[in-house]
Amino acid sequence: MGAEPLARITAPADFDRWLVPPCALAIHLCIGMAYGFSVFWLPLTHAIGVSGSVACDGLSLTGALTTTSCDWRVSDLVWVYTLFFVVLGLAAALFGGWVERVGPRRSGLVAAACWCGGLAIGALGVAVHQLWLLWLGAGVIGGIGLGIGYITPVSTLIKWFPDRRGLATGMAIMGFGGGAMVGSPLADRLMAAFAGPDSVGVWQTMLLLAGLHALFMAAGALGFRVPAPGWAPPGKAQVIAGGRFVPLGTATRTPQFWLVWCVLLLNVSASIGIIGLASPMIQEMFGGRLIGTPGIAFEAFDEKQKAAAAAVGAAFVGLISLFNIAGRFFWSSLSDRIGRKALYLFILGLGAACYGVALPGPAAGSLALFLACFALIASMYGGGFAAMPAWLADLFGTAQVGAIHGRLLTAWSTAGILGPLLVAYVRDARLAGGAARANLYDPIFLLLAGLLVAGLVAALLVRPVSEQLWQAAPDADVMPVDLATTVRTRPALRVAAWSAVVLPLAWGGGFTLQKAALLLQ
């Protein structure tokens, strides 16, 4: 595919740049449903039996891929989640340069085709009970859509907001974190509506979501524009969207790129594994104190107590989700004021301190203190994601930031495997050694704090890129002028565009707040 003619994707001089963020959010809200795919796991474990699971003794993973008579296990299904983020990183790395060449509208439409087409193929896999089709459709083809759909909005917004890069990336990546907050309760209700004596309602739900996502993502992609050469925000003619840049091939060979790669790897590894265990962790550490029966350990819970504690665990997950989403916007926006490097030094140091405070010893007397620590950790996990494209733009310029960001996301894919494995290995080793469940997490917290300290050292070593590596952008010979001194605002269009993304976020946020409110009772 070649690049679109500039006349079709270049905005006029008086274009309102605040119409671009809703387009970015429309795409990220849809692909962010990848975080909420676990809503399908339990229903799919009884997709054949419907009222109960049809288990087959001795079923291997290879056998599960093609069986039509045995229900799948959660361990078979979670591979879709792994594929999402491994393929996301690989696709972002492979197609990042292509995204910059063809423009955001075409890459956005390709992302929509892959993500929604993948969901549709996955729905077919569920309907005919072929796990390999679910893996291929949702995991691989959908994962390609994730990778392209993740970097396209971010790259575009950075070019429109050269004066507020952190705010721009925070807006987009907040949508990616909020996708599950909207998609999970919606999928729950759709499955309940489609369920019947012969179906658990999963394939119908996935197919309908594919259609809804296709509409939202296509609208977002078609709404994208790129700034004209020499464009600058109103009143900021000294900040040019193009300007100088470090080429992709050069950037990825610099120590700065690999140090930032390590920062992302270590920040994500230190957060993603433990956040994935949030619900069992709080139940095991605090036991009966969660449900008003202090002194009773988790191991001694009866079925009723386990159900009550699980509800509180779900509320804890809701609290983490809210802070993860809010942190993407808050911390990234703050980086515009204090600088990207200063932000990462702060959040990595504070994160390590939070793990120290959350150790069972210091936190033993205060559930509120424990909750505050993990709310902060979740917010900084999200903020570390959101500010990263802005840091790359600071280091290497905006001209090829999408391609550079795509290569960097391989750190995310690596951390998505490394973090959960580290946490699971240490936890299982402690259990095998006879440790009480309340004491399982001491070495895990210390290990994760150490990862964040290592990330802090990597961030500290980042220096500006040598002047010799910079090149003039293709439009550098265009006289920088403040073309958009008078922006043609369209209030009705702006309200409609923002309402289309804010209302779903508010709807999903309401359900998440209801769950999190249990922790305050």
Summary, kept brief:
This protein is an all-alpha fold and 521 residues long.
List the helices and strands and how they pair.
Blueprint: H1 6-9, H2 20-31, H3 41-44, H4 61-66, H5 74-102, H6 104-127, H7 131-160, H8 165-194, H9 202-223, E1 244-245, H10 248-251, H11 255-275, H12 278-286, H13 303-338, H14 340-357, H15 360-363, H16 367-396, H17 401-408, H18 410-432, H19 442-460, E2 471-472, H20 491-516
Antiparallel strand pairs: 1-2
Helix pairs in contact: 2-7, 2-8, 2-9, 2-20, 5-6, 5-7, 5-17, 5-18, 6-7, 6-9, 7-8, 7-17, 8-9, 8-13, 8-16, 8-20, 11-16, 11-18, 11-19, 12-13, 13-14, 13-16, 13-20, 14-16, 14-19, 16-17
What does this structure look like?
The protein is mainly α and 521 residues long. It has two domains: 20-235 and 488-512, Growth Hormone, Chain: A; 256-465, Up-down Bundle (Growth Hormone, Chain: A). It contains 20 helices and two strands. It has helices at 6-9, 20-31, 41-44, 61-66, 74-102, 104-127, 131-160, 165-194, 202-223, 248-251, 255-275, 278-286, 303-338, 340-357, 360-363, 367-396, 401-408, 410-432, 442-460, 491-516; strands spanning 244-245, 471-472. A two-stranded antiparallel sheet has the order 1-2. Helix 8 packs antiparallel against helix 9 (202-223) and helix 14 (340-357) packs antiparallel against helix 19. It starts with 5 loop residues before the first helix and ends in a 5-residue tail after the last helix. The model is unreliable at 476-484 (pLDDT under 50).
